[in-house]
TrEMBL record:
Keywords attached to this entry: Methyltransferase, Transferase
PANTHER family: METHYLTRANSFERASE, FKBM FAMILY PROTEIN (PTHR34203), SLL1173 PROTEIN (PTHR34203:SF15)
One GO biological process term: methylation
Source organism, top-level taxon: Bacteria
InterPro entries listed in its UniProt record: FkbM_mtfrase (IPR006342), SAM-dependent_MTase (IPR052514), SAM-dependent_MTases_sf (IPR029063)
Ranges where the Methyltransferase FkbM domain occurs: 80-216
Molecular function per GO: methyltransferase activity
Lineage summary: Bacteria, Pseudomonadati, Bacteroidota, Flavobacteriia, Flavobacteriales
Pfam families: Methyltransf_21
Name of the protein in question: FkbM family methyltransferase
Length: 253
């Protein structure tokens, strides 16, 4: 009993980094009961589905605070690749309200949740695309029967679920000069992203937050690190959730 109480107090304390004390208690109680809709004091809502990974993802973002890092600037431009149900972008938008965010997600069910969780927020672009290093077509697979590990495989124009989008295209479409935060969690597709056609956009990234998936696609990590080494990125930290955070050395000067 004592351990459970201490864990609850610790969870509320971590939630208070992002929410009011009242809302932190309310969220903590709702998570314990696995509620699907949590209405906060400002009437905004957090939506989490039962029997999915949504509650686990919420814990990572708002209790473990895996994206809550000290940055020397307030980010203005953010790409959230592998946005899942939008909780990372919700965190970024709460912490950096003036930021513009492009979310990329391949699953239609997750997209519906993104729209719910980011309702009322502005300067948000939601893209039902697969992030890749060129234009291509993909089939979507769910190898682990989960809601946070969908993968894409190249297909043909005659038989596909979604098309790709490149980071260069996102930059051009938004007329961005830099990407202040590039968050990537795309279940192994990061290997392709950092294999080629990164020379134009990668130097424009200030902070990279990436989870690599060597267990799914061999040599993801080394492919990413090789590309980053070309542009003098340095590893800043590794979060509790396994996300690697790199800073562009020019960004720190």
């Amino acid at each position: 009993m004592k351990t459970k109480i201490l864990r609850k107090i610790s969870g509320i304390s971590n939630l208070k980094r992002n929410f009011s004390f009242f809302d932190s208690i309310k969220i903590s109680n709702a998570l314990k009961k696995e509620k699907e809709n949590i209405t906060l004091s400002d009437n905004s809502q957090i939506h989490l589905r039962k029997n999915t990974k949504d509650h686990e993802t919420f814990d990572e973002v708002f209790i473990d605070n895996i994206y809550n890092l000290p940055l020397p600037i307030a980010p203005k431009t953010i790409i959230d690749a592998g946005a899942n149900i939008g909780l990372a972008s919700l965190f970024f938008k709460m912490k950096y309200p003036d930021s513009a965010i492009a979310l990329i997600e391949i699953d239609s069910g997750n997209l519906e949740m993104i729209r719910k969780n980011l309702k009322g927020y502005t300067n948000i672009t939601i893209l039902n695309k697969g992030l890749y290093n060129k234009h291509s077509y993909f089939k979507i697979f769910d190898p682990f029967n989960a809601t946070n590990s969908f993968v894409i495989k190249e297909s043909t124009q005659d038989d596909y679920d979604i098309e790709s989008i490149t980071i260069d295209q996102i930059i051009d479409d938004h007329s961005w000069d830099t990407i202040d935060i590039l968050k990537i969690d795309i279940e192994g597709a990061e290997k392709n992203l950092f294999e080629s056609n990164y020379q134009h956009w990668l130097p424009k990234v200030n902070v990279l937050m990436i989870e690599t998936h060597d267990r799914m696609v061999p040599k993801c990590s080394i492919t990413v690190m090789k590309a980053l080494d070309e542009y003098d990125f340095g590893l800043y930290t590794t979060t509790n959730g396994g996300t690697l955070v790199y800073y562009n050395s020019k960004f720190l000067q």
